[in-house]
Design goal:
Elements (H helix, E strand, L loop, with lengths): L2 H7 L1 H11 L3 H6 L10 H7 L5 E8 L3 H4 L5 H9 L4 E8 L6 H19 L1
Parallel strand pairs: 1-2
């Protein structure tokens, strides 16, 4: 089973991909312009061959989408670990979901990270 088949079967994935790619699910895989693959960070990390990248990823350990196996950040972590051009700092934040307090708790880290790499 391919990643896009797993991802689009869950309610979160179906809603997200339909919003970007439309309701024709067969086009999600077969359309070269709007392929669902181009929207998946894991696939992009596997295929990336550009300059060295730094990525900061925070994930709440109590996120219901994580526990329902709809987010799969471990797949991104594996893809990045196998790509010498990507340095992923993956931080599993214990006791957080993906709500307001999670975002507010780590927003400053992400602003500082972006400022370091953009400016």
């Amino acid at each position: 089973e391919q990643w896009y088949q797993r991802r689009v079967r869950g309610p979160w994935g179906q809603k997200a991909f339909a919003g970007y790619l439309g309701d024709n699910k067969s086009a999600w895989k077969n359309n070269p312009v709007y392929s669902a693959l181009q929207y998946d960070a894991t696939f992009t990390a596997k295929e990336y061959e550009g300059p060295k990248l730094e990525i900061l990823l925070d994930q709440g350990s109590d996120d219901p989408y994580l526990n329902d196996k709809q987010l799969l950040p471990e797949n991104l972590a594996n893809a990045c670990s196998n790509n010498k051009s990507i340095n992923l700092n993956f931080r599993m934040q214990q006791g957080y979901d993906h709500g307001y307090f999670f975002i507010m708790s780590f927003m400053e880290d992400h602003f500082n990270f972006m400022a370091k790499h953009i400016c």
